[in-house]
């Protein structure tokens, strides 16, 4: 659902062709006696070879359920109720457990926050890597052992051959996470999903593991989904970012763009909570309150109760995604190859498009699916522009504006970004 005429136009025309993984309209629900929890509530994204999609959001926003849905690991009382998850064009939703097992760990591998949940304490690390090699690459005997040792070396575990004979508890936390990465690589995956893989580690080890994952990804041209609650980690590792809130992706953009020009009040709040990023704030800024558990279909903005910018209407209209690729003078003409909504910047918030009247926006978002460019023309307001809007979040030209993504912000400009506020 994008508030522009081309929202579901073809992406085939873009230079790097079909995505490895394409998630569309995914909904995953947990049904209990009392209620239905809409853990993942209609999300879209895709991942291409060699790129990292970062998914960021607070606890409870639906990040892990998203990952488990892709892996086919959602168990009763949870189930996928809508949408598709296409791997190289093949929809995984609705496949049998046997069929899914072939993808899981093979084409699509996952690394969890706590390596002990994935490593079996009663087998040696070597046994476990060799088993994966046998299962997914048909290696056995000394061939498997050699390959296991070389995998451990490739994740920078010294004295690899000896350490193959050790048990997981003999490894430190960082070493275990490295072993787990080696195990994932033993499956020779094309997509690697990392769910908070560094959260449990100290800062130095965390940096090393992030670097390792980046190296591994580049070497193998993996499509990576990296899940974290930490915007600092996102800045390190992501190419594109989806910001999740209460089951929805409320903003997405290339990473430089997101840091330079965050649009959603929630994204701005997350960025302000990065220590040292906002020198004027003496204390660490956090957003008051928690992510609500979504127990009803979305009929309003789920962030509204915590939103410093909420307007009349946020409590009764559910926002659609609006394309906000400003055609800024300072960024125009950079990267012409990748047009198309998927590379663009979209935000699901009733404050956008900024150059429309509030009435128009409420109306437009209410039935966002059917809005087209001609409707937009008639509804343009005259006096409503200010500093921020004059750059032109223009929903009518969102496709062409795809060229403005990506390179428009250097690391130096990042620090100013959150000082920019929406002037209502
Ligand atoms: N097995 C389950 N049964 C019922 N509800 C669940 C289950 N698993 C997840 N949920 C609900 O789904 C929502 C999303 O949870 P999820 O674990 O995806 O959040 P998250 O973004 O990964 O959070 P965290 O950062 O804490 O890992 C939450 O409201 C959670 O309570
Ligand atoms: Ni999680």
What's the shape?
globular
**N-C termini distance:** 25 Å
Distinct bound molecules: adenosine-5'-triphosphate, nickel (II) ion
Radius of gyration of CA atoms, rounded to a whole number:
22 Å
Assign the CATH class.
Alpha Beta
CATH topology: Rossmann fold
Fraction of residues in helices? 25-40%
Name of the CATH superfamily: P-loop containing nucleotide triphosphate hydrolases
Q: How would you spell out the order of helices and strands?
A: EEEHEEHEHHHHEHEHEEHHEEHH
Low-confidence stretches: 4-15, 328-341, 370-375, 377-424
Largest sheet: 8 strands, mixed
Name the structural class: alpha/beta
**Count of helical segments?**
12
Number of domains: 1
Q: Could you give the order of strands across the largest sheet?
A: 6-7-8-3-9-10-12-11
Strand content: 15-25%
Mean pLDDT: 81
CATH architecture: 3-Layer(aba) Sandwich
The total beta strand count reads 12
Short description:
This protein is α/β, with parallel strands linked by helices. It has twelve helices and twelve strands. α6 (173-186) runs parallel beside α7 (203-220).
Molecular structure report:
The chain is of the alpha/beta class and 424 residues long. It has helices spanning 63-71, 97-103, 125-137, 141-154, 160-163, 173-186, 203-220, 231-237, 255-260, 265-272, 358-366, 373-379, and strands at 21-31, 36-47, 52-56, 78-87, 90-91, 108-111, 191-195, 223-228, 240-245, 248-254, 321-323, 346-348. It has 12 helices and 12 strands. Mean pLDDT is 81; it is low at 4-15, 328-341, 370-375 and 377-424. Adenosine-5'-triphosphate is lined by residues 30, 37, 39, 57, 59-65, 78, 229, 293.
